[in-house]
Amino acid sequence: MLSCLAFGTILNAQSLEKLTPYVKPIIGTQRMGHVYPGATVPFGMVQLSPDTDTIPFLSNGKYNPDVYKYCAGYQYDDKTIVGFSHTHFSGTGHSDLGDFLIMPTTGPLQLNPGTADHPENGYRSRFSHENEVATAGYYKVKLDDQQILAELTATNRVGFHQYTFPSSDQAHIILDLSSGIYNYEEKNVWTFVRIENDSTVTGYRQTNGWARTRTVYFAMKFSKPFLQYGSKESGKIDYRGFWGKFDQRKNFPDLAGKQLRLYFDFKTIENEKINIKFSLSPVSTANALLNMQEELPGWNFEQTKQAAANAWEKELNKIRIEGSTAEKENFYTALYHSFISPTTYMDVNGEYKGLDQNVHIAKGFNNYTTFSLWDTYRALHPLFNIVQPKRNADMVKSMLAHYDQSALHMLPVWSHYANDNWCMSGYHSVSVIADAAIKNIPGIDWNHALEACVTTATHRSYDGIGLYMDKGYIPVDKNGVGASTTLEYAYDDWCIAQLAKKLGRKDIYETFIRRSQNFRNIFDSSVGFMRAKLSDGSFKPGFDALSTNGQGFIEGNSWNYSLFVPHQPETLVKMMGGEKKFTAHLDSLFTMHLPDAFFAETEDITRDGIIGGYVHGNEPAHHAAYLYNWSGAPWKTQSRVRMILKMQYRPTPDGLGGNDDAGQMSAWYVFSSIGFYPVAPGSDEYAIGSPAVNAATLHLENGKSFSIKVSNQSDENVYVQKVLLNGKLLSNFRLKHADIMKGGTLQFYMGPQPKM
Questions:
Q1: pLDDT for the residue numbered 30
Q2: Which of 304, 357, 636, 740 has the fewest C-beta atoms under 10 angstroms from its C-beta?
Q3: Which of 232, 223, 229 minimizes the C-alpha distance to 252?
Q4: Which domain holds residue 140?
Q5: Is residue 176 part of a domain?
Q6: Residues 6 or more apart from 521 whose CB is under 8 A from it?
Q7: Is 54 contained in some domain?
Q8: Distance (Å, rounded) from C-alpha 510 to C-alpha 715?
Q9: Is the dihedral of CA 475, 479, 481, 482 positive or negative?
Q10: Cα separation of 361 and 601, whole Å?
């Protein structure tokens, strides 16, 4: 485990236990790259982190499966660091970014990264976890080959580097504009660099990757003037005009190319510190400079590091728990992960680049990007509606701005730096919007939001929507994941119906509440599972409920997806034969053995995230353990939830059983450990589970507090004997959102045996 550094005095006047030391850098399994162990502030534009290898996306012209491990840039098992780049995704199953890699070196100049086996042949360096520290807002590591101490911290839009050098006449700072995550030869469309003076550099990088057209601008300032600088262009450019009149390799201030690497030379004395401020902008180098001036005008690294720690302390204090050290480490690590993204996507003056690639101003809201909505609608955004409602309102407004700028007139599916990468299925922006509306998040034009939802859900040319509207399901011979997409659309349509009902739009409500029943159209009562259908209305032959390959489901199998009717669990129970049979179905899900062959074709699912046949390491069945509440066996929800909490979350570098997926895995933990979960976002109810904490207090933005108290808490006492809300018995294992927001107390009484 990486060590954790305690910070200085806490922000509050109260003498409260500090929470940031409980944040542990859970990175990932050997196969998956989950969360980068770097420097960022809550929801920050900059995510400054070490990258540990340069695995190419393609190998011999084909997809290289090893690249999947590096979707966050860092692998704990690696022995070398290539450098420190400024943008990362937090635990997504696909990736991009890794912009503007910086690496300090000494000795003869080398402008290639070398290899993991022979780092001495490039600018990378060996390192040891014994000399590595990762905390909320700060990262430190000793680069063994260079004998350089690297330290990182950040503001929202500025990465702050501090490098402590040995005595050297050959000290260098490398700026690699060609490096990236999920890299391939054509990814860099163009890079531009301008040397403004002997300590200031500006430029931009444009890439074509997961985001088709992405441009990021930067400004870079050194605390010490460089002696000289130079560059190397390794990309193939067929026509260079007449720039050959200049020697651009050394001390030339106006550079451009596809694969640029730059170096800046210094002379250093023993233990001399060279600091770098590196700011980002979606709009211009002028705005990057403005962001730097406004957020980080000085050079006090310790002060900036403390400010980042204070920012995290403030956010983590939104929920204070009582419990063991291990429980606090798990909980605050999860809460930290929940507050990394979505990320700020605007400059300090409110400007940002829109989906139309024009410059817009966010008027009256903060603009965000990194909406991994197939994942985060389930628990992350519902969590925000409790502890980050103002921020979530801005996220909804960002989605509506995306819709307004979209040439396709659609809400975001996966919003990514003024792009939609269209990853995964469903139109789950509507879930986030409806959930915010039903929970009375203020400041949003709900009529405009309803228009955006309906327009998105009737875009016939997108991902089978036309077929879904005409047939009531998506034929698998027309769309390979038609079965799961049918289920997801049905839930999303229910969300639209709830929004329409709230706004008094009976016509829209009736249309979409009918569409929300389409899950019935792919249920095969003869086998008791959801099943892919063909265009002629027949079920696809060769059905296998366990296989994730060729069955019509995305990143999952029918056994898990057959439970995806979160908006009508009562109906699902009846369809599957009633309470007794449904309970038996859930029991078998958690107790069966799922052989590796059944998920061998799906790289997002690994053995680490599987309990029986239940795949917690991927999202589609995250609500499944709570469905016992609708089958007359709530005590089984309680035992399953506590089992998942113990088995799938640990405060160790490999402590997650799957991709964190931009905070969804962690938000599941936060909700479940305090005793309830949003089974159907878009509803005002939460399902009661079994709290793992001894107590919790939610500090709400409206100034009120909601307390959760747990009597007789222990690892053995997982069963709820009774629940009191403000002293009154809660009999139906449901909790209303309004009861949380009014403040009050939820009291759990626990025991070792089920309360039948």
A1: 38
A2: 357
A3: 229
A4: 25-237+245-314
A5: yes
A6: 471, 472, 473, 486, 533
A7: yes
A8: 47
A9: negative
A10: 44
Domain count, the chain: 1
Asked if 531 contacts 475 with a C-beta cutoff of 8 angstroms, the reply is: no
Q: How would you label 38-72 residue by residue, b for 16+ Cβ within 10 Å and e otherwise? A: bbbbbbbbbbbbbbbbbbebeeeeeeeeebbbbbb
Segment (H or E) for 494:
helix 482-502
CB contact burial 561-573 (16+ within 10 A = b; e otherwise): bbbbbbbbbeebb
In a domain, 219, yes or no: yes
Tokens 């406004």 — which residue? 294
- Tell me the two tokens of residue 501: 């009902």
The alpha-helical segments, DSSP class H, found in 145-184 are none
Q: What stretch of H or E contains 591?
A: helix 579-591
Please check whether residue 339 is in contact with residue 41, taking contact to mean a CB–CB distance below 8 angstroms.
Answer: no
pLDDT of amino acid 610: 85
Distances (CA, A) of 687 to 47, 347, 631, 736: 34, 40, 13, 9
Q: Where are the alpha helices (DSSP H) in 203-318?
A: 285-295, 301-316
Looking at residue 57, what is its pLDDT?
85
How far apart CA 537 and CA 528 sit, in angstroms, is 17
- Would residue 719 count as lying in a domain? no
β-pair partners for 106: 171
DSSP 8-state class, residue 223: S
CB proximity list for 15: less than 8 A, separation 6 or greater: none
Classified as helix, coil or strand, 454 is helix
CATH number for the domain spanning 175: value is 2.70.98.10
SS3 breakdown of the chain: % helix, strand, coil, rounded to 5?
A: 30, 25, 45
Q: Which of 516, 554, 214, 595 is nearest to 370 (CA)?
A: 214
What is the helix (H) or strand (E) element at residue 488, kind and residue range? helix 482-502
How does strand 80-81 pair with strand 200-207?
Answer: unpaired
- Predicted confidence at residue 81, as pLDDT, reads 97
∠ CA 222-228-233, nearest 5°, is 95
* 8 A C-beta contact, residue 313 and residue 192: no
Q: What percent of the chain has pLDDT over 90?
A: 82
Tokens linked to 746: 């939820």
Question: Which whole-number Å values give the CA distances from 369 to 181, 322, 415, 551, 731, in the listed order?
Answer: 18, 34, 6, 33, 41
Residue 664 CA to residue 456 CA, distance in Å, equals 24
What is the spatial distance between Cα 391 and Cα 440, in angstroms, rounded to a whole number?
14
Whole-number Å distance between alpha carbons of 660 and 92: 7
The 3-state secondary structure of 100-131 reads: CEEEEEECCCCCCCCCCCCHHHCCCEECCHHH
Buried b vs exposed e over 643-672: b needs ≥16 C-beta within 10 Å? bbbeebbbbebbbbbbbbbbbbbbbbbbbb
Q: Please name the amino acid found at residue 381.
A: H
What is the pLDDT at residue 6? 24
